[in-house]
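Why does residue order matter? Because the sequence determines the fold. Keep that principle in mind as you read this record.
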Amino acid sequence: MTEKISPRVLGAVVATGLMSFCGVIVETAMNITFPTLMQEFNVSTAMVQWMTTIYLLTVAIMVPLSAILKKRFRTKQLFLLANLLFIVGLGLDAVATYFPILLLGRVVQGIGTGIALPLMFNIILEQVPVAKIGFMMGIGTLITAIAPAIGPTFGGIVVSTLGWRYIFILLLPILVLSLVIGLKCIQQMSFDGLSILFIMATFAGLIIGFSNMGEQSLFSWLVGGAFIIGLLGLLALVVRSQRLTTPIINLNVLRNGDFAGHVLSFFLIQITALGLSFILPNYIQLVNHSSATAAGLVVLPGALLGAVFAPFSGRILDRLGPKKPLLIGSTLALLALLLFSFLGRALNDGLIIAFYLIFMAGVGLAYGNIMTNGLQLLTPAEQADGNAIFTTMQQFAGAMGTAIVAVIIGQSQNAGHMKVTVATAIGSQHAFYFLLSLLVIELIVLGKVILWPLDKSTQ
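Structure:
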C-alpha cells in the first residue's frame, strides 16, 4: 500500500514553501533593477550589488542557527517569526528613500528567509513518508533552485511596468497566504554567543574581502584584512564547535567523506547558478541593449524547464538511484558553461536562451538530488545538522558567486579604455571561465563520491 502524505503535512510544506519561494525569488529579482537603482540612488556597480550580497550573507549567518532554533522552539513559533520579519523587510524596501534603508530591509528579509528555508526541508525529512521523500525534496528544491532563475523575469516585467518598489509589494499577498496556511497546518533560548560571533566573522569577512577585490589592494583592510578575519573566524568556529556538546553547526557530520563531497558539489553548483543569474540579465541589457522586460523573458524558458525537472528528478532518484540524475545533470550544466565561455563575447539573446535551457535542465536534474542523496548518507539524528550545513552553504555560495562575478565584470568595466558594451562582454566571458572551472571541480568531486564512495554500502 502506498503511503500518503497527510493534508496537514502537505499544507505545512506549502506554507513554508511559499515563504521560501518569496525569499529565494527576491534574491535575483533585484539584479534586473541594478541600472535603475544606480541612477536613482547614485551608487556604483560595486555598491549596488550589495542588494543581493548582504541579503544572502544574512541568510547564510541565520541558517546555521536553524538546528538550535528547531530544538528550542516549536516549528509554528519559528514560522510565525520568519513570516513577520519578512513582511517587515518588504515594507521597509517598498518605502525606502535612501539606499541604506534598502539594505536594512534586505537584512530583515534575510533573517526571515534564513529561518524559513530549513523549516521546509526539516518538515519534509521528518513528516513525509520515506517513499515520498525524494519527490517532496524535489518540490522543495524546485523553490530554491528555480526561483533565482524566475527572479529576473519577474523583476524585469515589474520594473518595466510598475516600478522596482512593486517587486516587494507584490510579494506581500503571497506571504499573507503563507501565514494563513502555516498557522492552520504547522504542528507542534539560549545560544552560544561566541559561535554566533565566529559565524558572522567568517561569512562577513570572506564576502567583504571578495566584494572589494576589484577596487582595493589585496593588502588593504577591506580585502586582505577581511580575508584574515574570515579565516580566523572559521578556525575559531571549528575549535569552538569541537568543545560544545550541542554546537550551533555540528561539523562532525563532515567527517563522513561521502557527505562532505556532496556538500562541496552542492556549494560549487550554487556559486555557478547564482553567478550566472547575475551575469545574464546585465549582459542582456548592457551588451545586447535589450530592455529589462526582455532580459527577464530571455531566462524564462530555462526557468520553466528547470521547474519541470526539479520534482521530476526527485522521482528519478527514488526509482533509479543517484548515479544517473546527479552525473547527467552535472554534465549538462558543465556543457552549458563551456558554450557560454567559448562564445562569451558574442552571445545574442537566442544563444543565451538555448544555453541557459541546457544549464537549467542540468541544475534541475542534479542540484536538489545532491542534497537529498547527501542527507540520506547521515543518520536520522544527524539530518537536521546536515540540512543546516547544506542550506548554509547554499546561501553563502550564492553571496560568494554574486560578489565574485560582480568583481570580475567590474574590473573589466573600470578599465577605462573600452566602451561599456565591450568591457561588459569581456568581463562576462572571464566570469564564465571562472564558473566553468568550478563546475569541472564539481563534476570530479561528485563522480568520486558517487562512483567510488568511501562507504561501499551507499553504492
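The chain has a mean pLDDT of 82.
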